[in-house]
Amino acid sequence: MKRLQRLRATAALRDLVSEVGFGRAQLVQPLFVVEGLSAPEAVPGLGDNHRLPLARLGERVARDLEAGVRQFMLFAVPAAKQAGGFDPAFAGRAIETVMARSGGRATLWVDTCLCSHTASGHCCLHDARGRQDLPGTLAELAKLARAYADAGADGIAPSDMNDGRVAHLRAALDAAGHGLVPIMSYSSKFASGFYGPFRVAADSAPQHGDRRGYQLDVRSARDAYAASVRCAEEGADLLMVKPGMSSIDLIAGIGARTGLPVGAYQVSGEYAGLTLLAREGLADFDAALLESWYVMRRAGAAFIVTYGARLAGALGLP
Ligand code: PBG
Q1: Tens digit of each residue's pLDDT (9 = 90 or more) over 175-207
Q2: CATH code for the domain in which residue 17 is found
Q3: Ligand 1 mean position to 302 CA, how many Å?
Q4: Range of the domain at 133
Q5: What atom in ligand 1 is closest to the CA of residue 205?
């Protein structure tokens, strides 16, 4: 009889035929640092992920390095909300803080977007008539990215989904002498109902309308492929699907079309889904978290951005 069960009998046999060996080296830990905060603030559903004052960022990074985190994604939230002319100074100080602590032991990616800066909460600027101001948006993004790289960031991660941003950022970085700073593009990013805890953390909820004019429609895989292919053509080094768990069907196809590594961002709502299930006694958190990572890896994710990266060592990942 064909007994597929035979190779499932022991842990050693299951390990032998597992197709998804991965560890902490493939996980990226987000960090939220908020200007003007005096004490850390919890973010609903995100467990041990807090909004941090700048003064507490260094110790958080030190503990994470101790736990084996090797990749960080920084979200720097400025105090001022403006219409334009954004100031990268606070993010610059945060970047310097992380770099001083990690001293080359970790890679620092900096999320590059406008939604924490704009009074509108949108990822782009608007002109007087309320239309998207694309040239103005790209100029602001490029200014921020350049400042982040100047401050020492290892990589730039544009999450805004505005047309042409990767080419624009690549040119700006190259012109500023940052030709070796890689771009991790949030290349297939959907308008999603799963970003709720993040918008609390980053203070970035849209004040009018929604993001469907620039983020992808979940009903179209064609557009999702086109968006990632274009990021690759424009010079992105790494691509990403987001939300990760609900986009696993796209990962292999994007990789095949572009030849680039494709990561998955397990977004705040997806992660909160696990913490809330566990809180209700409806799931074993550790097991569910590991399962979710394995599934993204099985689908072909080269790396995973996850609020649980700092827990991976305790979960037994190498
Ligand atoms: C900023 C940005 C968002 C996320 C990452 N970068 C929010 C959004 O686009 O609304 C979401 C991350 C998460 O939910 O964990 N543009």
Answers
A1: 999 999 999 999 999 999 999 999 999 888 899
A2: 3.20.20.70
A3: 20
A4: 4-311
A5: 10
% residues pLDDT > 70 (the chain): 100
Within 192-267, where are the H helices?
Answer: 196-202, 221-233, 248-258
Establish whether residue 115 lines the binding site of ligand 1, counting it when its CB lies within 6 angstroms of any ligand atom: yes
Domain presence at residue 317 = no
Say which residues have a Cβ less than 8 Å from residue 137's Cβ, sequence separation at least 6.
114, 124, 125, 160, 162, 165
How much is the pTM?
0.95
Cβ–Cβ under 8 Å, residues 249 and 225: no
**28 C-alpha to ligand 1 centroid (Å):** 15
- Structurally, the chain folds into a number of domains equal to 1
Over residues 251-309, the pLDDT tens digits come to 999 999 999 999 999 999 999 999 999 999 999 999 999 999 999 999 999 999 999 99
**Would you say residue 193 lies in a domain?**
yes
Q: Quick one: tokens of 154?
A: 């290892």
3-state secondary structure of 126: strand
* 303 touches ligand 1 (CB under 6 Å): no
Closest ligand 1 atom, CA of 194?
A: 14
Cβ–ligand 1 contact at 274 (below 6 Å): no
Domain-embedded: residue 318: no
Whether 316 is in a domain gets the answer no
